[in-house]
Description:
By secondary structure, the protein is mainly alpha-helical. About 70% of the residues lie in helices and about 5% in strands.
Amino acid sequence: MGQALTLALTAALTCWLLRVSFWRWCRWMALPFGFLLVGVLTIVFSVSRDPQMLLASIRLGAFSIGISAPGLAVAGETFWRSLAAMAATLWLVLNLPFPQLIILLKRGRVPRLLTEQILLTWRFIFILLDEAMAIHRAQTLRFGYGSVPQGYRSLAMLVGLLFTRVLLRYQQMSTALDIKLYQGDFHL
């Protein structure tokens, strides 16, 4: 119940203070929802030798695969906790500039290695997005998404090309760090 309340409060604050429409907030929250759904579904289903322990089950040889009452309870708790965490993360991303986050992490005495990892992950996310947008723009200009089969082909090409281009960008960054005599510490 506490997680659902946190979710509702965070949603209300995000929509009201940041002037984001509720439907846009829902679309943003829907992006990682597929991952959450897969995770929760794996918690819901259980394997047991005794089908009486399961609320609904399918017999597969000596085992039964089905839904158990404790699995449903844990899945429900995990679902609401994860949604509340995603809403809080979205609030943080929309409300706090990244340089200020790094300053807060330093003041909070978060280990330097973790702060550097967060910084590098943040940079790589934007490298990935930049490359994906450039490839998608080029494909769209060449009518790469004119039909559904052509769109699937273009998407497959985008993923393959994105992987190689991100690896090239990583190698370029590594070379730049070597040229600057990188010793394992970033200036934060």
